[in-house]
């Protein structure tokens, strides 16, 4: 009988240890902390059961946070994934031709800029007195469209979402372009012979074959929507009032400003639960499509 | 040959990866395992691990402050270098962070083993939460005789607990006053207002003349709370306020608090548009460029005003008087200074350094170079700038300081109050509703605080 080869297990051991140390164990420890009350400098932890979760769900800001995260999720899916895919189709089509590579790079560059730098830049652009946006509106004659953007209760979160779309649409476009480039040319040629126009080809051939990539893009967009932190932190810090508050920022503020690590851990557990559920649902939905 | 080279590269890479694994594990000492920002903050905030000086040669003292901008940063580095030259057995490692990140970093670093020996801390509740965890050293026994006499007692009070424990020494004094554009006031024929009604009349006159009366930017939420804190001092009795600011007994049911928010609303009507959409610093530009008539600012901003427009003809006056249950003798402002960690290995050396760094000689230099005063007496002796001398006389003649509102409040109450003020600024909530919410949070806080 052939002896079982144990060498492969040794090869994966370091990777497994790292994943355990930096991913799984922290998740479990975080769940444990969510049942205690402690701060970053306290010497002891006090067991409080489900009190942190109760306070989280009954917090006045909770509906606002969930609403903001969902806005981000839905708008990102439509703009980043939806519009990004259409852009990718255009870039791969004959319309754009040789210039496709150039446009691809131009659209991709914003996603290379650090999130904090973009946040600071847009803080300036949105500034009501001296910012670029209001100045531009004034010069074009649309003075009555001027707002205080990041200082406006209703507009703040949408301004932040808009900033994010600008930054990451190009990234999704690039991923989808790669997927579309892998579509075999034979299918497309066969479709042309059959008389299919460009739109028909895109919908019936390119999209289905790029389904896996589309799924990956939507999963990372949804997960990113619920982990949202840096964009809000570097612009409004949840303001004005608490109207642009999101789960990620709430977690951070509770951990380091309100001295409430337990609440932060509870928020972390919630974010984890939401993202895992969303990912599982997405995977199930597409798998059932394949069957 | 080629095969051997390949093998060698593979083995080399495997060793490198194994080494990086070991290197990483050394730093995760007290990390709590929650979100990534925690470990990132600890990595950034911690200095290189200090090896225990076996032979007792070099004593390393870690100093953490919140003034990374010049001229203050260079001033601190210069003084530290001077001290190190005079004391060859002591090395001082400096690190710093901006205001908002400092508030977050310090809480992580103080709880860890890499707590700085000397660090900046606001007086009041901000430091007292650390004192409750026994993280700050008691300086009362050191504060005797000559040292105690050389410091302004009205300022030292802010770094003393109700039980009489002295826990810090001020680095810069501060007070908040209304700065006004003398040229604009002269053109409009306005006098310096002393009462609230006179003040509102002046604002009204400026507004009718097409000049924005008050410059303000509340994006960071603390500027708004300075107004409300001062108004609270004028409208609520001192002992009631003391009871409410203490998280164990805080209720905020006194009608004076809602009144304060109503007065604040009156002020908002005269501020530039988009108050919540810009920062205080950006709004200050509007004042220094001569576009607004008034700015409620701190004395330490005098340096910034001079930098932004050296030709501006400005003056100062105290917050207008309102007849109420409160204490008009309080000057809103608070010294900011340094405390010593309870875990430091060199308590005497740290205290010696602070005595010198925050003493009269260094203070006089600081007043000249940075425009800030420490709590030692007579630091204006070398000053020639009239505006700074006026600022110093305001500080010295103050009977009692009224500390910054946000550093006096418990964390959850502070958050609720700042949010409420932000909403009131936008007109989204009425003062009465805001106070109802604050009262609820204050009641909750009574059970949360240890």
Describe what this molecule looks like in 3D:
Chain A is mainly alpha-helical and 291 residues long. Chain A has a single domain, classed as MetI-like fold (Orthogonal Bundle), CATH 1.10.3720.10. Helix content of chain A is 70%, strand content 1%. Chain A is built from 13 helices and two strands. Chain A has helices spanning 7-33, 51-58, 61-92, 100-108, 115-125, 132-140, 156-181, 185-193, 198-209, 211-227, 230-233, 247-256, 261-290; strands at residues 36-37, 46-47. Chain A has a two-stranded antiparallel sheet. Chain A is flat. The model of chain A has no long low-confidence stretch (mean pLDDT 91). By secondary structure, chain B is α/β, with parallel strands linked by helices. In chain B, the strands form three sheets. Chain B has a five-stranded mixed sheet, sandwiched between helices. Chain B has a four-stranded mixed sheet with strand order 6-7-5-8. A two-stranded parallel ribbon of chain B has the order 9-11. In chain B, helix 10 packs across helix 19 (411-426), helix 12 (255-268) crosses helix 20 and helix 19 (411-426) runs antiparallel to helix 20. The model of chain B is unreliable at 26-55 (pLDDT under 50).
List the helices and strands and how they pair.
The complex is a heterodimer of chains A (291) and B (450).
Chain A: H1 7-33, E1 36-37, E2 46-47, H2 51-58, H3 61-92, H4 100-108, H5 115-125, H6 132-140, H7 156-181, H8 185-193, H9 198-209, H10 211-227, H11 230-233, H12 247-256, H13 261-290
Antiparallel strand pairs in A: 1-2
Helix pairs in contact in A: 1-13, 2-13, 3-7, 3-10, 4-7, 8-9, 10-13, 12-13
Chain B: H1 2-25, H2 36-45, E1 59-65, H3 72-86, E2 90-96, H4 99-111, E3 118-122, H5 125-132, H6 145-149, H7 153-156, E4 168-172, E5 176-181, H8 182-187, H9 196-208, E6 212-215, H10 222-235, H11 238-245, H12 255-268, H13 280-288, E7 292-298, H14 302-308, E8 314-317, E9 330-332, E10 336-340, H15 347-357, H16 360-369, H17 386-397, E11 400-402, H18 405-408, H19 411-426, H20 431-448
Parallel strand pairs in B: 1-2, 1-3, 6-7, 9-11
Antiparallel strand pairs in B: 3-10, 4-10, 5-7, 5-8
Helix pairs in contact in B: 2-4, 10-12, 10-19, 12-20, 19-20
